[in-house]
Design a protein that fits this description.
The complex is a heterodimer of chains A (about 55) and B (about 150). Chain A is an all-alpha fold and about 55 residues long. Chain A contains two helices and no strands. In chain A, helix 1 packs antiparallel against helix 2. Chain B contains six helices and no strands. The radius of gyration of chain B is 18 Å and the shape is elongated. The two termini of chain B are about 20 Å apart. Classes of the chains: A mainly alpha (about 55), B mainly alpha (about 150). Chains A and B meet through helix 1 of A and helix 3 and helix 6 of B.
């Protein structure tokens, strides 16, 4: 069974962790940035998905 | 062994020597070679450049994430892009995917690069393998900066 949401969250988390570790020196700040990037990507995708629902033919 | 990354260290790093005109100047030929070797290692195997620079934890994190993303993409029936004549965009995609280094070569040699276009997760897999390569290209640039003493 394929979960599109799971794939999206896994993708966002992977990108978030890499960018967090790359852009922040301290572990705590890296984790915080990774969480923000992950949440931002997932949240933006969900908002866009709802927006597209309203403009769908 | 204390990893210089992910520590409570808060002091600013030593500035990289700057010559007139704003150009960065390596301190010696040995340093230049070290920077080159670190960058190549970072490209060949994700995380290895950081490990070679003593950023062990960071290197392990990068290796785990990039390799998981790449392998996950293959398991999701994604293809590993390669240049296809008559398809100009595949050249760009191949450059991105090849950023993952040795795993890209292994995937092609082992025949794991084709994917299954009938699979529901095919496009997810394509994205995973491509982004794994693109992320590793960023990691190579970061390894270059670390080796050059800028970070």
């Amino acid at each position: 069974m394929h979960s599109h949401l799971l794939y999206m969250v896994a993708f966002a988390a992977a990108v978030g962790v890499v960018l967090g570790a790359m852009l922040r020196r301290e572990a705590r700040e890296a984790v915080r940035l990774a969480m923000w990037i992950t949440l931002g990507m997932v949240g933006t995708a969900l908002v866009l998905a709802w927006a597209m629902y309203f403009v769908s033919p | 062994m204390r990893d210089p990354d992910f520590s409570a260290h808060t002091s600013t790093p030593e500035p990289f020597p700057v010559v007139e005109g704003g150009e960065l100047e390596p301190s010696s030929e040995a340093d230049s070679l070290g920077v080159l070797v670190s960058s190549v290692l970072a490209w060949v195997m994700p995380g290895l450049g950081h490990i070679a620079n003593g950023r062990v934890m960071r290197g392990i994190v990068f290796a785990m994430i990039v390799l998981s993303l790449f392998l996950g993409g293959i398991l999701l029936d994604g293809k590993v892009y390669r240049p296809e004549p008559g398809q100009p965009l595949t050249y760009l995609a191949a450059v991105g995917a090849a950023g993952v280094g040795l795993p890209y070569v292994v995937a092609h040699q082992a025949g794991w690069n084709l994917g299954d276009i009938r699979s529901q997760s095919h496009e997810y897999g394509n994205t995973f393998t491509l982004v794994a390569g693109l992320l590793n290209l960023l990691i190579v640039l970061d390894a270059y900066d670390v080796a050059a003493g800028r970070r």
